[in-house]
Amino acid sequence: MNPIIEVQNLSFKYSETGAMILDSVDMTIQKSSITAIAGLSGCGKSTLVFCLCGAIPKSLPGIMHGNILLEGNNIKDLSLPSLAKKVGIVFQDVDNQLFLPTVEAEIAFAPENLCLSYDEIKVTIERVLANLNIEHLRYKNPSQLSGGEKHLAAIASVLSLDPEIIILDEVLSELDRENKDLIIDTIKLLQQSGKTIIIIDHSIKHLMVADTILLMRKGKIEDRIEVDEDHELLYNRLSDFFLCQGV
Ligand SMILES: Nc1ncnc2c1ncn2[C@@H]1O[C@H](COP(=O)(O)OP(=O)(O)OP(=O)(O)O)[C@@H](O)[C@H]1O
Ligand SMILES: [Mg+2]
Fold it and tell me: What is the CATH number of domain 3-244?
């Protein structure tokens, strides 16, 4: 087995006096896998992926214990630019992620910051727009897009750096059926090309796209399910998990 991410005894709270949000989380994520994280609202899913992409503690401060290793390297020792090339994330609150006047500018933003050449950036923009089939959104202003289109634009901006690990925090729930299918197909293609994907979702149907499902409760990983078992049994097991928590 070849873990690309290892989380060791990770605990986090947003402030000295606040409640513990992540409580001794241990987990591994295999390279080129699709991992889904599920759990009740407020259990810490977004906080966990903020830690995996380095937003916590680099941009969002708090009190953190434990280690996160990316390909064996402690995330604490990686600079933000090298982290951005390794881990791309579409945040749940996508409006905060999009701030430029066109989708094209969003896609170009990270490569420009890494000083790629004009020609490389042009090729990147065209590759990403074609991969997501969103050429028609190229010159649109993200603030005027629908919720689903905004998520597609954010995914496009994340794919611009071709990161090894791609995290999608509740992206599918905002999309209409056609775009949902497009993103699920894109996730599978990205996996086939060797990428590691992490999705957060509440829908059992979407969770089953994953190879592994991590069930979270109150800041802990409560269960790890490999999606190779009978799908009907798995569906019932996931329904029980959500029902037990009053979803
Ligand atoms: N910036 C912050 N400062 C303080 N507390 C926060 C902050 N962000 C989140 N929290 C708290 O941390 C807890 C976990 O929130 P988080 O967003 O990680 O949960 P979640 O599982 O992603 O929930 P949801 O399914 O609703 O997205 C919640 O109690 C939330 O209020
Ligand atoms: Mg969340």
Answer: 3.40.50.300
More confident residue, 84 or 44: 44
Q: Which strands, in side-by-side order, build the sheet including 3-13?
A: 22-30, 3-13, 63-70, 73-74
Average pLDDT rounded to a whole number, residues 180-191: 90
The DSSP secondary-structure symbol of 163 reads -
Ligand 1 center from residue 46 Cα (angstroms): 7
46 lines ligand 1 (CB under 6 A): yes
Ligand nearest to the CA of 18: 1
21 Cβ below 6 A of ligand 1: yes
Contact 58, 81 (CB under 8 A): no
Q: Where are the domains of the chain?
A: 3-244
* pLDDT recorded at residue 2: 76
Q: What is the largest CA-CA distance in the chain?
A: 54
- The answer on pLDDT for 245 being more than 80 is no
**Does ligand 1 have an atom closer than 6 angstroms to the CB of 44?**
yes
